[in-house]
Amino acid sequence: MRTVDEHLEALLELVGPLQPYEQPLLESLGLPMVDDVVSPIDLPRFTNSAMDGYAVRASDVQGANRDYPVELPVVGEQAAGSSSPTALTSGTAIKIMTGAPMPSGADTVIPVELTDGGEATVAIHQARRAGENVRPAGEDVAAGEVVAEAGKALGPREVGLLASLGFPRLRARPRPRVVVISTGSELREPGARLDYDSIYDGNSYMLAACARAAGAISYRVGITSDDPREFADLLGDQLVRADLVVTSGGISKGSYDVVKAALADLGSVEFCEVAMQPGKPQGFGTVGEDRTPIVTLPGNPVSSYVSFEVFVLPMLRRMMGMLPYRRPMVQATLTEELRSPAGRRQYLRGWFEVSQRGARVTPVSGPGSHLVAGLARANCLVVIEEDETALHVGDTARVLVLDREF
């Protein structure tokens, strides 16, 4: 059997970063930038008011208080988005709204609540220093400044910044298109009638959701029976929209292993055993004229999920140009004893939590690869290395915390 790390290395060699192109700003959410993004303008673009009030010269209102207010004639009004440039002369005030450009000659804004709100003249009840309640041009971002570095994935806050700087589109690598196929004559769509020996297909929904959560575009194309021709026809129809194909089931050593049978004639695919539990049977290669990468995962749901997390997720991140490829490990104190077979890396479901006593992890459910409810209750995988056969209460365990930003 090959090791987990050897198998992952082979899979990562199968794919490379997708070619970048310009995409609409919102479509770039979650994607890393290919190039440094440089601001074309200052932000704020012009010096403007931070308050509703009156633009004045600070020297004209020195000493103003409620007992002895300073009265100034109001010579104009400046509103955001509907004003032409104005100038202020000494001894006057201009009514101004939040975000409106500061008149030339003015250096301070007196908030309206510190005045009598006058229209023709205004009584100012409190002085302010020069520069107060004023937003200088370029205070936030200067033109020519790098605002998003290459390799950084854009979040909602970065999207807001780039929109504010006038970027309608950005150059980024596209989201990989992942086609997900479940195999098995016993499978039925959720909501369909079940026969005596049939079950609902959860794997394709889970794997499509995993791909989507990773930032990819997922196409769940349903179920094929154990007929190799049916699988081959479905796969051939889907390759036109696939950057990666992920299948579940049909790769063990039984008589009805449809994926193995079909792929023998469809491409260059290798089937192997990996020293891990769950998830020992694996397969990968390319199919079709365009040599589309394909990863074949085992059919038991926990095996399928763990295989996606360990192997497919790093592939998708590589295709999007995201680093690191692998989910970082953390350490936690184990609350229960665990055993593992020698020579295999085991991935056990667990619950990870951090309290005042530090990070702790508790096993969830049993080791069975069919126990999908236990998988749903878990928020981490406890990783037991190949040379470890037992971990005891209080030992430090290595943990993959799921559903967490890298």
Automatic annotation (TrEMBL):
<comment type="pathway">
    <text>Cofactor biosynthesis; molybdopterin biosynthesis.</text>
</comment>
<dbReference type="Pfam" id="PF03454">
    <property type="entry name" value="MoeA_C"/>
</dbReference>
<dbReference type="InterPro" id="IPR005110">
    <property type="entry name" value="MoeA_linker/N"/>
</dbReference>
<keyword id="KW-0460">Magnesium</keyword>
<comment type="function">
    <text>Catalyzes the insertion of molybdate into adenylated molybdopterin with the concomitant release of AMP.</text>
</comment>
<dbReference type="GO" id="GO:0005829">
    <property type="term" value="C:cytosol"/>
</dbReference>
<dbReference type="InterPro" id="IPR038987">
    <property type="entry name" value="MoeA-like"/>
</dbReference>
<dbReference type="InterPro" id="IPR005111">
    <property type="entry name" value="MoeA_C_domain_IV"/>
</dbReference>
<dbReference type="InterPro" id="IPR036135">
    <property type="entry name" value="MoeA_linker/N_sf"/>
</dbReference>
<dbReference type="GO" id="GO:0006777">
    <property type="term" value="P:Mo-molybdopterin cofactor biosynthetic process"/>
</dbReference>
<dbReference type="InterPro" id="IPR036688">
    <property type="entry name" value="MoeA_C_domain_IV_sf"/>
</dbReference>
<dbReference type="Pfam" id="PF03453">
    <property type="entry name" value="MoeA_N"/>
</dbReference>
<dbReference type="InterPro" id="IPR036425">
    <property type="entry name" value="MoaB/Mog-like_dom_sf"/>
</dbReference>
<dbReference type="InterPro" id="IPR001453">
    <property type="entry name" value="MoaB/Mog_dom"/>
</dbReference>
<dbReference type="GO" id="GO:0061599">
    <property type="term" value="F:molybdopterin molybdotransferase activity"/>
</dbReference>
<protein>
    <recommendedName>
        <fullName>Molybdopterin molybdenumtransferase</fullName>
        <ecNumber>2.10.1.1</ecNumber>
    </recommendedName>
</protein>
<keyword id="KW-0501">Molybdenum cofactor biosynthesis</keyword>
<keyword id="KW-0500">Molybdenum</keyword>
<keyword id="KW-0479">Metal-binding</keyword>
<dbReference type="GO" id="GO:0046872">
    <property type="term" value="F:metal ion binding"/>
</dbReference>
<comment type="similarity">
    <text>Belongs to the MoeA family.</text>
</comment>
<dbReference type="Pfam" id="PF00994">
    <property type="entry name" value="MoCF_biosynth"/>
</dbReference>
<keyword id="KW-0808">Transferase</keyword>
<feature type="domain" description="MoaB/Mog">
    <location>
        <begin position="179"/>
        <end position="318"/>
    </location>
</feature>
